[in-house]
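Hi everyone, sorry if this is the wrong subforum. Our group has a chain we'd like a structural model of before ordering constructs, and none of us has done structure prediction before. Sequence below.
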Amino acid sequence: MAGSEIRPLPFHLALAGPTASGKTAAALEIARHYAVEIISVDSALVYRGMDIGTAKPTAMEQASVVHHLIDIRDPLQAYSAAEFVRDASALIQDISTRGKLPLLVGGTMLYFKALADGLDDMPPADAAVREALSVEAAEKGWPAMHAQLMTVDPITAQRLAPADSQRIQRALEVYRISGLPLSHFHAAKADAAAATPSNGVLISLEPSERAWLHGRIAQRFDAMLAGGFLDEVKTLRARGDLHIDLPSMRCVGYRQAWEALDGLWPMRELRDKGVFATRQLAKRQITWLRSMPQRHIVACDADNALSQVLSKVHVAVQNKPLSGG
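Answer:
Right subforum, don't worry. Here is the predicted structure as tokens:
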């Protein structure tokens, strides 16, 4: 994988997969055979005090191999993809310089994509422009706004449905702020990524039978509840400065627990709602993975999944670029 800079990153490994696919066990198995340091690629593990509901590696697991980007933010703070790319890129350089193998592990696919494809220079959201577009859409309707987009950015408009209000609004917002179509920024990012050699190998843990993953998700959520997850959320609520609209509290499981404690629905429904939300997350993660053609797939529900992962790591290390660190 290449970073957002033109200079390619040193050789590194990446291990991705949906939630409950066995990433932590596979990463620790790799660490038993190679001198690696693990870089977490997980938007929830960055938060301190959120241990049970994130299935954070245990203190013993973290002591067995160096982990990075875990417990680096308070739940009140945000952590963006741009910050991840900055931090992960610096860590890959540093770990490689010290003679270790950087191993990125996680399930936040946006982070993987940002590191692999780079970040564009698209203008940030502008509340005033967005509000003006909302008012205009209320008068004319989103199909009319889609037609307007077709005149200024036909490439983007052709891939959006006329009722896709969120994406139409963002595309028009970008155009009105910058005078350039959204497709221009996407093309520029793609060109930069294509011009930057990739020095990473992505191994993807994916279930051949979705039922296997669903079973693992249910078992994990039950274990979280038995391990004190609800008390963990109560402790976070007791701080008094957190709320459900923060990125940290929107994490799967935490949102459902927070809503149950707010009395939005009976506590007895927490388990089913949590399991369902986690299944939906896993589905989105698998969809993201399927958009990454460079990945090397291992069936995480195979009996020999760990040996398959090690085999792919061995091949990757043997074939790594001589200039890749």
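For your construct planning: The beta strands are 12-16, 36-41, 67-68, 101-106, 200-206, 296-299. Residues 199 and 321 are 7 Å apart (CA to CA).
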